[in-house]
């Protein structure tokens, strides 16, 4: 993090702008809107500066920059079209340990102006640290269309009730849950309809009610790794949960989207590292919900496709614990798509099978003959450890040795790697390429299309390749 984002109160604080042209004018308008006590030095001034001086909003100093003009100032902005003058301002300010902004010269900035979305008292700032201001502005424009105008009145309303809520509810968790009830209530709808008095009355009514604190469990699919593949509902619940119980397969980038003050409990689930047995995980969900917690059970992929979500729900039902299930993009769909492999294709595969490489101990053997039919795509989850056995069984069941296959490691993530070969080479590829989990096996004629349909990252020059994220354009 190159800059620390701060919101600074500038009301009546002395600020100096060096420059009187159009660039200085834009910075001055922002500073005046924040209540700064503004001084501007320049040999010439845009007409707007003269109008501000007439209204008593700014002090204009006709002349050239001198270091003593910095005395007593909190901030200084160098906004002239003369690089030498801007450099002199930066050096003088730096010598005094002052914060300085040199317009369009990021290395000479001790602070920067972000793109701002103003829904006062809600304020959102977006910055690229001066490296891509046009991109930051485009992001601001996108967010402007998403954020409703009633956010400001809503913040003002809840601000008036803040002391009453603190007096009634002891502890941060209880207060947060109350405010979440408010933000999901008719209070918001009344403000949307421009009925502030009705919204205030509804908020007062909510404060007088005392609903029982009821726990709930949300079984949520996090997808294969790319955070942009999360569903909107998954993201909403991750932000509302008191506790997030997650697996190793949930990527760090997705965990960054969990609410900052939520408790996080890792229950493992990856090859060779089961930190908590499934039965204990089931009991943990029950205990947390009975304690009145909103629990997000976050799983890689989809919770109902080799995710054992059904087993966890079976533990909740006898305890009468409310639950809901949020599907996620399963690894087969997500990883194959990012690798450029269609799971079905009219010319190559008319069906697809999803199977797991890990079965219950003493469980039935997979139907290898069914899995070995031609013109079918076979996707094997968690199959890396048993790669040699899978290869041997499929060949013995009649699948052709030259059948194309792909091993997709860390699918959909920036470190995604795809290894291609044939079924006869499966065990050797896993060993030679040192494939690690999470990894998915895709076996079938559709893999032959991968080199042509590949799209994620740079086109590979060899059969084994790393794929970086595509550029944002």
Automatic annotation (TrEMBL):
<keyword id="KW-0627">Porphyrin biosynthesis</keyword>
<feature type="modified residue" description="Phosphoserine">
    <location>
        <position position="128"/>
    </location>
</feature>
<keyword id="KW-0511">Multifunctional enzyme</keyword>
<keyword id="KW-0949">S-adenosyl-L-methionine</keyword>
<comment type="pathway">
    <text>Porphyrin-containing compound metabolism; siroheme biosynthesis; precorrin-2 from uroporphyrinogen III: step 1/1.</text>
</comment>
<keyword id="KW-0560">Oxidoreductase</keyword>
<dbReference type="InterPro" id="IPR036291">
    <property type="entry name" value="NAD(P)-bd_dom_sf"/>
</dbReference>
<dbReference type="InterPro" id="IPR037115">
    <property type="entry name" value="Sirohaem_synt_dimer_dom_sf"/>
</dbReference>
<protein>
    <recommendedName>
        <fullName>Siroheme synthase</fullName>
        <ecNumber>2.1.1.107</ecNumber>
        <ecNumber>1.3.1.76</ecNumber>
        <ecNumber>4.99.1.4</ecNumber>
    </recommendedName>
</protein>
<feature type="binding site">
    <location>
        <begin position="330"/>
        <end position="331"/>
    </location>
    <ligand>
        <name>S-adenosyl-L-methionine</name>
    </ligand>
</feature>
<dbReference type="InterPro" id="IPR019478">
    <property type="entry name" value="Sirohaem_synthase_dimer_dom"/>
</dbReference>
<keyword id="KW-0597">Phosphoprotein</keyword>
<dbReference type="InterPro" id="IPR006366">
    <property type="entry name" value="CobA/CysG_C"/>
</dbReference>
<keyword id="KW-0456">Lyase</keyword>
<dbReference type="InterPro" id="IPR014777">
    <property type="entry name" value="4pyrrole_Mease_sub1"/>
</dbReference>
<feature type="region of interest" description="Precorrin-2 dehydrogenase / sirohydrochlorin ferrochelatase">
    <location>
        <begin position="1"/>
        <end position="203"/>
    </location>
</feature>
<dbReference type="InterPro" id="IPR003043">
    <property type="entry name" value="Uropor_MeTrfase_CS"/>
</dbReference>
<feature type="binding site">
    <location>
        <begin position="43"/>
        <end position="44"/>
    </location>
    <ligand>
        <name>NAD(+)</name>
    </ligand>
</feature>
<dbReference type="Pfam" id="PF10414">
    <property type="entry name" value="CysG_dimeriser"/>
</dbReference>
<dbReference type="InterPro" id="IPR006367">
    <property type="entry name" value="Sirohaem_synthase_N"/>
</dbReference>
<feature type="binding site">
    <location>
        <begin position="22"/>
        <end position="23"/>
    </location>
    <ligand>
        <name>NAD(+)</name>
    </ligand>
</feature>
<dbReference type="InterPro" id="IPR012409">
    <property type="entry name" value="Sirohaem_synth"/>
</dbReference>
<comment type="pathway">
    <text>Porphyrin-containing compound metabolism; siroheme biosynthesis; sirohydrochlorin from precorrin-2: step 1/1.</text>
</comment>
<keyword id="KW-0808">Transferase</keyword>
<feature type="binding site">
    <location>
        <begin position="300"/>
        <end position="302"/>
    </location>
    <ligand>
        <name>S-adenosyl-L-methionine</name>
    </ligand>
</feature>
<dbReference type="InterPro" id="IPR014776">
    <property type="entry name" value="4pyrrole_Mease_sub2"/>
</dbReference>
<feature type="binding site">
    <location>
        <position position="411"/>
    </location>
    <ligand>
        <name>S-adenosyl-L-methionine</name>
    </ligand>
</feature>
<dbReference type="InterPro" id="IPR035996">
    <property type="entry name" value="4pyrrol_Methylase_sf"/>
</dbReference>
<feature type="active site" description="Proton acceptor">
    <location>
        <position position="247"/>
    </location>
</feature>
<keyword id="KW-0520">NAD</keyword>
<feature type="domain" description="Tetrapyrrole methylase">
    <location>
        <begin position="217"/>
        <end position="427"/>
    </location>
</feature>
<dbReference type="InterPro" id="IPR050161">
    <property type="entry name" value="Siro_Cobalamin_biosynth"/>
</dbReference>
<feature type="binding site">
    <location>
        <position position="224"/>
    </location>
    <ligand>
        <name>S-adenosyl-L-methionine</name>
    </ligand>
</feature>
<dbReference type="Pfam" id="PF00590">
    <property type="entry name" value="TP_methylase"/>
</dbReference>
<feature type="region of interest" description="Uroporphyrinogen-III C-methyltransferase">
    <location>
        <begin position="215"/>
        <end position="473"/>
    </location>
</feature>
<keyword id="KW-0489">Methyltransferase</keyword>
<feature type="active site" description="Proton donor">
    <location>
        <position position="269"/>
    </location>
</feature>
<comment type="function">
    <text>Then it catalyzes the NAD-dependent ring dehydrogenation of precorrin-2 to yield sirohydrochlorin. Finally, it catalyzes the ferrochelation of sirohydrochlorin to yield siroheme.</text>
</comment>
<feature type="binding site">
    <location>
        <position position="305"/>
    </location>
    <ligand>
        <name>S-adenosyl-L-methionine</name>
    </ligand>
</feature>
<comment type="similarity">
    <text>In the N-terminal section; belongs to the precorrin-2 dehydrogenase / sirohydrochlorin ferrochelatase family.</text>
</comment>
<feature type="domain" description="Sirohaem synthase dimerisation">
    <location>
        <begin position="150"/>
        <end position="207"/>
    </location>
</feature>
<keyword id="KW-0169">Cobalamin biosynthesis</keyword>
């Amino acid at each position: 993090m190159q800059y620390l984002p701060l919101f600074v109160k500038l009301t009546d604080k002395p600020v100096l702008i060096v420059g009187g042209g159009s660039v200085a004018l834009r910075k001055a308008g922002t500073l005046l809107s924040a209540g700064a006590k503004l001084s501007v030095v320049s040999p010439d001034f845009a007409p707007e500066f003269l109008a501000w001086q007439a209204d008593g909003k700014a002090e204009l100093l006709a002349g050239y920059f001198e270091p003593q003009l910095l005395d007593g100032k909190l901030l200084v902005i160098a906004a002239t079209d003369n690089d030498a003058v801007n450099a002199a301002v930066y050096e003088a300010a730096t010598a005094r340990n002052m914060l300085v902004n040199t317009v369009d010269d990021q290395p000479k900035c001790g602070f920067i102006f972000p793109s701002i979305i103003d829904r006062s008292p809600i304020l959102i700032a977006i910055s690229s640290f001066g490296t891509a201001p046009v991109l930051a502005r485009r992001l601001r424009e996108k967010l402007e269309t998403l954020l409703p105008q009633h956010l400001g009145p809503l913040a003002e309303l809840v601000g008036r009730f803040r002391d009453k809520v603190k007096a009634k509810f002891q502890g941060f968790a209880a207060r947060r849950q109350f405010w979440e009830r408010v933000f999901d209530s008719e209070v918001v709808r009344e403000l949307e309809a421009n009925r502030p008095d009705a919204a205030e009355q509804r908020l007062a009514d909510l404060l007088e009610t005392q609903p029982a604190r009821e726990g709930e469990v949300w079984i949520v699919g996090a997808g294969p790794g790319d955070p942009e593949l999360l569903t909107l509902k998954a993201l909403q619940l991750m932000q509302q949960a008191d506790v997030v119980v997650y697996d190793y397969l949930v990527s760090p980038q997705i965990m960054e989207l969990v609410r900052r003050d939520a408790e996080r409990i890792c229950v493992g689930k990856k090859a060779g590292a089961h930190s908590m047995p499934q039965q204990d995980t089931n009991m943990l969900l029950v205990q947390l919900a009975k304690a009145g917690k909103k629990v997000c059970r976050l799983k890689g992929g989809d919770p109902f496709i080799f995710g054992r979500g059904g087993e966890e729900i079976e533990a909740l039902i006898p305890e009468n614990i409310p639950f809901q299930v949020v599907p996620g993009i399963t690894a087969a769909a997500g990883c194959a798509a990012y690798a450029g492999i269609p799971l079905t294709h009219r010319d190559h595969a008319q069906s697809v099978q999803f199977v797991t490489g890990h079965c219950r101990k003493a469980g039935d053997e997979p139907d290898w003959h069914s899995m070995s039919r031609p013109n079918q795509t076979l996707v094997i989850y968690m199959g890396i450890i048993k790669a040699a056995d899978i290869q041997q069984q499929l060949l013995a069941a009649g699948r052709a040795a030259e059948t194309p296959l792909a091993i997709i490691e860390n699918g959909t993530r920036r470190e995604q790697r795809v290894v291609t070969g044939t079924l006869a080479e499966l065990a050797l590829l896993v060993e030679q390429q040192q494939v690690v989990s999470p990894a998915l096996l895709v076996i079938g004629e559709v893999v032959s299309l991968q080199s042509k349909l590949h799209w994620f990252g740079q086109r590979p020059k060899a059969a084994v390749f790393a794929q970086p994220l595509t550029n944002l354009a």
